[in-house]
Amino acid sequence: SIIKRDKMKNESKIKTLKTKKDYRTALSRFQKIFQATDTKESEEADVLARLIKEYEDKHYSLKIKKPKQA
Q1: Mean pLDDT, residues 34-57 taken together
Q2: Between helices 39-59 and 20-33, what is the axis angle to 10°?
Q3: How far apart are CA 58 and CA 56, in angstroms?
Q4: pLDDT, position 37
Q5: pLDDT number for residue 26
Q6: What are residue 38's phi and psi, to 5 degrees?
Q7: Which residues are within 8 A (CB) of 43 and not within 5 positions of it... i.e. 6 or more apart?
Q8: End-to-end CA distance of the chain
Q9: For residue 8, how many other CB atoms are within 10 A of its CB?
Q10: Distances from the Cα of 42 to the Cα of 58, 61, 68, 70, angstroms
Q11: I need a labelling partner for 43 at 20 to 30 A (CA). Which of 3, 20, 32, 33 fits?
């Protein structure tokens, strides 16, 4: 899991997305809780969205060339 909760300590540990498997796991979890109304799941969705965006920006960035001027 990308986010591990320790209920005894009432804290969460967040794992960065380093592999494509991590990325797919995060996407899958995000899809399940995307419209969550529960506060904890809503916060988890926010964190996952940021981690997913960061991974996509790093691994799937579009390189757009500026058009040449005549």
Answers
A1: 88
A2: 140
A3: 5
A4: 80
A5: 92
A6: -65, 135
A7: none
A8: 53
A9: 6
A10: 25, 27, 45, 51
A11: 20
**Which two structure tokens, joined as six digits, stand for 51?**
């981690």
d(CA 24, CA 63): 23
The tokens describing 63, both together, are 């390189």
pLDDT digits (tens, 9 = 90+) for 5-42: 666 666 667 888 999 999 999 999 999 988 878 788 88
- Count Cβ atoms within 10 A of the Cβ of residue 17 and give its class: 0-12 exposed, 13-18 middle, 19 or more buried: buried
Backbone phi, psi, residue 24, to 5°: -65, -35
Residue 27 burial (10 A CB sphere; 0-12, 13-18, 19+): middle
Quickly count helices (H) and strands (E) in the chain.
Answer: 2, 2
Is the pTM higher than 0.85? no
